[in-house]
Amino acid sequence: MKRRTAVRNMGLALGSVISLPAWANAWSPSSLIPADLLALDEEALLAEICETILPETNTPGSKSLKVHQFVHRMIQDCLPEKAQDTFKKGLAYTDQQANKKNGQGFVNAKPSERKALLVEMSKAEESKDFVKLVKDLTVRGYRISEHYQLNVLKYKMAPGFFHGSVPVE
Amino acid sequence: MSNLNIDAIKKRSFDAIVIGSGISGGWSAKELCDKGLKTLLLERGPNVEHIVDYPTAMMDPWDFKYDKQMPRDYLKANTIGGRPHNFQEDSAHFYVKDSEHPYLQDKPFDWIRGYQVGGKGLMWARGTQRWSKYDFEGPARDGFSIEWPISYDELAPWYSHVEIFAGISGNRDGLEQLPDGEFLPPHEQTCVEKHFSETMAKKYKNTRPAIIGRCAHLTEPKPIHLKQGRGKCVNRNLCQRGCPHGGYFSSNSSTIPWARMTGKLTLRHDSVVHSIIFDEKKNKAIGVRVVDRQTKAISEYFAKIIFVNAATINSNLVLLNSKSRRFPNGLGNDNGLLGKYMHFHNFRTTISAEYEGMLDRMSAGNRPNGSYIPRFRNVFKQETDFLRGYAAGLYTGRMTYNDTEGLLGEELKESLSHRKYGNWYVGSHMMGETIPKEESRVWLDDKQVDAWGVPLLNISIDFDENDNKMIEDFHVQMSEMYSAAGFSNIKTHHTPNEPPGGDIHEMGGIRMGKDPKTSLLNKWNQLHHCPNVIVSDGACMTTNSTQNPSLTFMAIAARAANHAVEELKKGNL
Fold first, then answer.
1. CA B545 to CA B391: how far, in whole Å?
2. For chain A, what are the domain ranges?
3. Inter-chain contact B365–A162, Cβ cutoff 8 Å?
4. Quick check: B319 and B331 in contact, CB under 8 A?
5. Which of A163, B36, B364, B428 could lock onto B392 through a cystine, CB 3.0 to 4.6 A?
6. One pLDDT digit (tens) per residue for chain A, 169 residues
């Protein structure tokens, strides 16, 4: 239930500052639950796949930044419907391959085994679309995370200036 | 009549009523209140209080559920309302939903609407260029539409009047075809835009300038702006959310709070205007009939003068639906031209390129503006096989990227921590003048009505052969100009199936003119046949030229309001 709690927390965080716009009212966090695309074990699997794509190092990785929830949300609500099929089948395929290779599911595999598997899958015809789908969304979700925006991009909402020509940093 | 009734009517009586609170309606209300008139400003949508009702304004990138993208289901249900260029997760709440506000497309037309206090002035692109005498004299010279009843010289002081108050940033370029205004300091061009501009000056002997855009941003607020409660633009570039600093001009941040300070303004939102009431005995309009957006209750409001600023197409709708024995075909419509000769801007193509020079330079910060190429075709004389011409935007910046191909895990993360710089991107959109035609029209449906009992509108507006020729010329000329500047990978992006309307620059239908036989409004925006009704939004436009239209709407609205007040004082209305 971690994801749901987190989504609800996000709603609260927003609600404490401002009220959500009218269009958002119809999609309160609780209304997402019945439409959930993933079962809890699939959600855990997705979290590990995303973490393998962008792992925790001396800076936060996908799981602690909750990037997998973004990936899930985008596929469930925004991307063309056919992505859901690629996604669901890809998740099952990943676990199946992990079992075949390491005798246990992806979630229980060692980080090195997980990475090797995803690299292999990214090259194989039957799984490369799935890896690309999840990887692209993981990168996108990571790039909009508070950590990446503030620490890497040095995001400022209101820079207060524009210069038309400065040396490349 | 009982005293109660008289009191009730008194309560609902004003000196002036303004229908619509967008950019032009805000100006009407401000001018009327400044002149001491008790003014009722009607808005069909809900209130949007400056700052308070900008729910997404302070959201950071990580606060959005979908990284600005809108959900699939929303886009499927709103194939029209979901198309504008700055429609996204942070601005979607300012656009109307297709299902709530249906209309009938005799020909495909994207009717983009913002039903709230402030109207589309919350999401506009803020480009503000004056017309020149060549624009006003165009129809007479080239023999299309009808002659404008006003000249540049007549409107020029009103341009100044609105520019000073709204705050327009720009450079004094000294161009005959794009007169200078009352400018706040300009934004800076990028080095590539400067390079392009210098190259054009040489190649075309100063006939194709590329200047910094003129826009409604407070680059350096003056006391008049501070008095409105506005502050300096801080380069957020998040304008479509509403600006908590009042850094750009909108009714919400500027004219409405100002009008309120006079103590003369009554703002009534959630008030859908059904029609204007015409009194046969007095032979003039006496008020408006309003349907409450939520309760659907009907009420009437009365005034000596009535301003129609409902936005082009809705202003047409209000007049068409204002039927009386005297005007069975709509208010002021003796010649049958109401709703006809509509026009818009041709935005059907863009061009993009890259520049491989100046790779040691980049831009920094945000600029809520771009560069601008004023019309250079057929300005001083007819020189092509199509009428009129086009202006173009010019946007440049460094492409940035991170290598991700084939990377996974720590290597991918490492790569994402170092931004790489590619070539400069270069892009221009076309903004072409279109020719008003009688067959470009809107009319009331005789069967279907909306949720407020107002007949649905049929829309039949389309591109024509002149537009297609202009698109071809844009491709040829802009490619030549881009090549001359050393740009590479030049690509045109023609969208021949894109319906009109996405420009959100629809105009006409209640055009101004000298002759009541061929126009609806006189040179002061009064209906020829019902002079206490003034139409001073985009509907009044005789032609459209190539400038972003809002500044001209503002100047016309301010001029019309001031004239109406004078006439009222003289007892002529």
1. 9
2. 1-35, 38-151
3. yes
4. yes
5. B428
6. 333 333 333 333 333 333 444 444 444 433 444 347 888 889 999 999 999 999 999 999 999 999 999 999 999 999 999 999 999 999 999 999 999 998 999 999 999 999 999 999 999 999 999 999 999 999 999 999 999 999 999 999 999 999 999 999 7
